[in-house]
Amino acid sequence: MPHKTFFWFILPTGLAMILFIGLPIVSSFFQSLHIETEQILMEVENCDPFGCKTNVRVDVEATEKLRQENPLGRFNGFGTYTDRNHLAFDEIGEAWNTSSSMSEFKDIVLNLPFYKALLFTLTFCFAVTPPVIILGFIVALSVNTLSKIIKGFIVFGTILPMIVTPLIGSLVLFWMIDSQGIIGASIQILFDDPNLSLKASSNLTWITLIIYGIWHNTPFAFVVFYAALQTVPQDPIEAAYIDGASRYQRVRYIVIPHLYPVATFIMLICLMDNFRVFEPIIGFSAEGVAQSLSWMIYQDLRNENKMLFGSAGATSMLTIIGIAFLLTPVLIRTWKEFRTER
Amino acid sequence: MKKLILALLISFATTSVFAGSHSPCGVTNGSINILANEFTTYRIFMDEVKSCAGPDADFNVTHSVDHNKLQVAALSANPAEFSAKLVTNGSITPLMNDGLIRPLDDLVEKYGSNLNENQKITIDGKIYAVAFMANAQHLWYRESILNDLGIAVPSTYEEVIAAAEKIKSAGVMDNPYAGAFKSGWNLGQEFVNMYLGHGGEFFKSGSAQPNVNNEKGVAALNVIKKLTELSNPDFLTQDTNAVKEEWESGNVALMHVWNSGAASLLDDEGDQDIKADTRLAPSPTVGGGSKPATTLWWDGIAIATNTSDENAEASFRALVGAASSTDLANNNPNATVWLIKGYTPGDTAGPVVDAASRGTTPYPSFPHMSLMHGALSTELVEFLQGNESAEKALADVEAAYIAKATEQGFL
Hints:
heterodimer, A: mainly alpha, MetI-like fold, two-stranded antiparallel sheet, two-stranded antiparallel ribbon, 15 helices, 4 strands, B: about 400 residues, D-Maltodextrin-Binding Protein, domain 2, 2 domains, 18 helices, globular
């Protein structure tokens, strides 16, 4: 395609991307460099049903005046990025100097909110993505061999987990794994331990979330693989069949190489999706033991009485950088394949 | 503190007379849109508000347990998403910090002639809210279970723990104790209770510097830890409503929840045997302290700054009509402790009055308290799971608080 044609072809998309993706990111970045203006406190007398007493309150007018002068807040540079709730440089430096062993250092670092969230996010990403690809592939292969009459129903049933809203899906499972729910109670009977609770231990909660993630994401991999399976050329398969190749050999040497680029695509999307894991944490009430980067942003914007825009902006920027890091190897690989194909 | 008892006594004596020139009820213009917490007493209150607003009023109410998280964003918008908010001494401070609720003096003068003096919440001489009920967390117990095992009603947390251990070892229940330990606001509140019960102060005096990492904080955490060991293993996912369900299912013999829970715990629905066996007791003291380990709360009405005067007046009329309705209070005497004029306290008011008379601290209303509560909400979980020491958890609380308070401009 000539460059000029390409330019006019991409222009509308490009403009929309700048407007709806680029500018908000720039704006979040600017916000993340600022913190709230100083709160001016004053002493006042408060009276309520329990009596009167002197208390402090924010001097709204004076604070509002400061805010009018600096609508973005005080400039803080990268201070928010390096504070304890984000990259925590000071705390890590101190931990490095004071801890006597690597494991102690690791404990201190993984106790910091950002690294705790990063650990869960990465664990979730890498524990969910491979099973999703493998399971999705197996399900697609199986469904592909079904007779036409039942195929429609089975395809519908298989993609149900993806149709269910993540929050609702996780809430349904949350009640099923309750110690009085059908899964929770069955597990207690199975392991003969009346106090076994999937919600109580952090390891079991992580496993629950990961299983939920696999359950929820597999249909996506299935749909893409299933569509791709329809494009597998029949001639080489028939040739292999005549040559006496087993079903396994046909899949291994013809189907899988053909679907390889599709698998890369699924991996890319899955990694991106799972890196921003959020709904299951809320649905499973797992905030206590499993925090993700997206959950941290939510916490800054929602769980505090006041919205911490700077902190949320900083976490968003770090999330974007994290996704970029994660996808680089996959993108480099795709690029190389693209070059060789040309 | 004595004011509350006094007010309750006065309310025995006074009878309701509508002296005001303006009757608040029967709203015809302006729209009413209220944000409120979700529990049975609020539902009862809102029914009265709706009937006071009248059939011609444009009336909407949103009940949400997430009201605290929604309120600042919703009322910051101009025009605000809601014209009124039901607030408490805890949730009013973030609204005051940003000037999101308006002074009500003129409206009180016009429509509030039937209010008790102590219902008027004044800050710096101006009325910002009108309280209608008082609330506190306190002990609830199952009488027959305690009697069968010869256990006296506990008056300290040490006795609560001993009683729960006895019930457990007798094989009556696996998890005899329950409290709202859900990670988040509830868990933070449990620490607030226990820390104040030990005589702790959240901030170094006269500043916004945190002050929880000390002996009292550690002692408070250790008591909470012991209690959670006697609770359902899922305690980190159980909020007040979940605890009430555990109670109604008969899984629990001792719990520490809100007085207003009586509205649903003692109603006509569910297992009546358990309800007949349910008793209320004062909140226990802890660690040899004299004050009960709980906090006093008032719940009241507040009107958004960023709403039109017409909507503000309409909302205030409907709300204050309910907040001064003697009938509401006396038809539901056990739903909560009403502060309404002419109210005759019901059987369940005792623990709140007891808490007030023993000098219980009201929930702290510092502008930066919500940040402290937020830090407590998230940083105590690992200690309760046995993954870190109490000192470490409290150091984390202080560090998390400092980072957020700095960002908000308090430090």
